[in-house]
Amino acid sequence: MAAEAKRLASSVQYMGGVAMALHLEGSLALQRDEHDATRGYDDLALAIFRTVHDRLGEANCLRSLGDLGRHVDDLDAARQHYNLALVIYRDIQHRLGEANCLQGLGLLSLALQRPSEAFARFQEVLRGFRDIRDLRGQEAVHGYMARAALAAGAGDQALVLAEASLEIGRTISDAVSAKRLVLRLARERSSMDPEAWRALQEQAEDSRKAAIDAARERLRAADRDVYDLPSPLP
Questions:
Q1: I need a surface site. Which of 118, 124, 130, 177 has the fewest CB within 10 A?
Q2: 12: closest CA among 38, 47, 39, 48?
Q3: Does residue 140 sit within a domain?
Q4: Which of 42-56, 194-208, 212-226 has the lowest mean pLDDT?
Q5: Per-residue pLDDT tens over the stretch 210-233
Q6: Domain of life, per the record (predicted)?
């Protein structure tokens, strides 16, 4: 009996590993815009995860299928998959998965030209990422909130939220290093004199800061909270 139980456990573990590999292949295929391959990998992985009762794996596959639906504009299917995944994430108390799922639903609202609905969803996502101290998630959702604010006609809020996304990104060391590398490569490929290049960078940075400061001042004057999307500013 013990030997049989051990063999069964080993088989379940092996199949779980196979499903994880298939799910990873699906994620990579989506990055390459190979949509049929993505669906094939994730459908198969989903079936295995359900067979071995791996609920986190099941939720991850469902969320990936939601991402796929969003990429191919099958928004009804995307919403269905996100909602199914969300139920599982909440049931197993997986906060990161829940936040990512809600973010996908917010992007669906944005695609449907419902910016206020999207903004409210992103607010919920931001609270989740803050609770689990996920800086990358906070950086991304600030960018999405900026897009929603802009779509709603609240340009000043969009500008300040986009700046908040950049500020969070600056605290992530590898993102800062990557930015410096891009700037260095661009400078090396440019025929511009290094001093002129530096002056241009400083001018661009000064203009950006002035625009942000002006937007913040207008929001303060209107007694508007950047995280509460109002009707468009007059």
A1: 177
A2: 48
A3: yes
A4: 194-208
A5: 777 888 888 888 888 888 776 544
A6: Bacteria
